[in-house]
Amino acid sequence: MADFPALQNDLLLRAARQEPVERTPVWIMRQAGRYLPEYRALRADEAFFDVVRTPALAAEVTLQPLRRFPLDAAIIFSDILVVPQAMGLRVEMIPGRGPYFPDPLRTVEDLRRLRRPDVQDALHYMLEAITLTRKALAGKVPLIGFCGAPWTLMAYMIEGGSSKTFARAKGWLYRQPEASHRLLTLLTDVLVDFLIAQIDAGAQVVQVFDSWAGVLSPDLFRAFALPYLRRIGEAVKKARPEVPRIVFARGAHASLAELADGSYDVVGLDWTVDPRQARKLTGGRVALQGNLDPCALYADPETIRQLTHQMLDAFGPRGHIANLGHGLHPDHHPDHVRAFVEAVHDYVPVTST
Ligand code: CP3
């Protein structure tokens, strides 16, 4: 493992462990992205996956939002779909349309096309980007590594791109449960290797994105998503216990209590969840992350400030990491992003005397 500069801002790490903090830490999903003019300028000359595959460019894009805003963490610039790529599927990013798999998994026989990669080899570019970024951060804030959850990756690998319903992928769960479990198991094995490799490359926190948890019924989530999320959380905890793990299962309302079973330190919430209810459901067993509605950033800066302060009141000062309830949108104004970040900074908690 490389020798990195000492961390100067550990608010995120302490909040994840539910330790006292002087101030709630804040970072934002998709904090690097198209709402930043400097990102659009860089992307004008480079395809999305070329940026992802070039460590110097990925590091540069990771740092862009940190030069503008006093964020308490960096998240490595990459994509969850690098894992299906490493397993043998082609994935393109079509501007304005999103991910596209020219040759997705159609039948159970297609599982034979997948391999279990050596992550050090197949995903070396992301690991190098992490090491490079961690050095460039010089201890300013911690660096977050990430991966997609098994169900969300399976959904893309079968659907071949984004979808409202992910009906084709859900069809597998109902028709081919055994093959689905085989695919989810393979993905889980790769993802455990990948997160541990990211930590060894320099990631100080890891987040698992189950972005499409919300298309599953509670029973499907419990059968096909939750056990694999748990396996990942437990395996990474066992291998690298000092590194906090965050799980963000968007729309998994029915399973919030089960997500707080100890396999993760932090449960991320989307904006449809009431923070006070989430506190009750998770009973202080985990820290919570989130969850201002990304569309609240379309309001004027003073309203953003008020809404952010209301959100901070609702979560309380202990065990909270401020974030949006999902990623920033390409048409968000950087000044409104700033209003959100600054509102977290200037918040004074309501104290009971
Ligand atoms: O700043 C960060 O959050 C780090 C970088 C990051 C990206 N993708 C960059 C990206 C992260 C953490 C992701 C995760 C990711 N990728 C998820 C989980 C989070 C979520 O949004 O639910 C998912 C589902 C994907 C798959 C993906 N990548 C989709 C569906 C799309 C297209 C939708 C869109 O926003 O355009 C992407 C493309 C993508 N990934 C972009 C960025 C900045 C925009 C593409 C571009 O620059 O042309």
From TrEMBL:
Pathway annotation: Porphyrin-containing compound metabolism; protoporphyrin-IX biosynthesis; coproporphyrinogen-III from 5-aminolevulinate: step 4/4
Q: What class of enzyme is it?
A: lyase
Which GO cellular component does the record give, naming just one? cytosol
Q: Which CDD domains match?
A: URO-D
Annotated catalysed reactions: uroporphyrinogen III + 4 H(+) = coproporphyrinogen III + 4 CO2
InterPro entries in the record, alphabetically? UROD/MetE-like_sf, Uroporphyrinogen_deCO2ase_HemE, Uroporphyrinogen_deCOase
Q: Where is the Uroporphyrinogen decarboxylase (URO-D) domain?
A: 25-34, 144-160
Main location class: cytoplasm
| Annotated GO biological process | protoporphyrinogen IX biosynthetic process
**Please, which domain of life does this record's source organism belong to?**
Bacteria
What are the EC numbers? 4.1.1.37
Compartments, as annotated in UniProt: Cytoplasm
Question: What residues does the record give for site: Transition state stabilizer?
Answer: D79
Where, in this chain's numbering, is substrate bound?
R30, Q31, A32, G33, R34, F49, D79, Y156, S211, H326
* Pfam families, A to Z: URO-D
For this chain, one GO molecular function annotation is: uroporphyrinogen decarboxylase activity
Task: Provide this UniProt record's keywords sorted from A to Z.
Answer: Cytoplasm, Decarboxylase, Lyase, Porphyrin biosynthesis
NCBIfam families this protein is in? hemE
- What PANTHER family is this protein classified in? METHYLTETRAHYDROFOLATE:HOMOCYSTEINE METHYLTRANSFERASE RELATED (PTHR21091), UROPORPHYRINOGEN DECARBOXYLASE (PTHR21091:SF169)
What HAMAP family does the record tag this protein with? URO_D
Q: Which family does it belong to?
A: Belongs to the uroporphyrinogen decarboxylase family.
Q: How does it assemble?
A: Homodimer.
| UniProt function note | Catalyzes the decarboxylation of four acetate groups of uroporphyrinogen-III to yield coproporphyrinogen-III.
Protein name, please? Uroporphyrinogen decarboxylase
Q: Which organism is it from?
A: Rhodothermus profundi
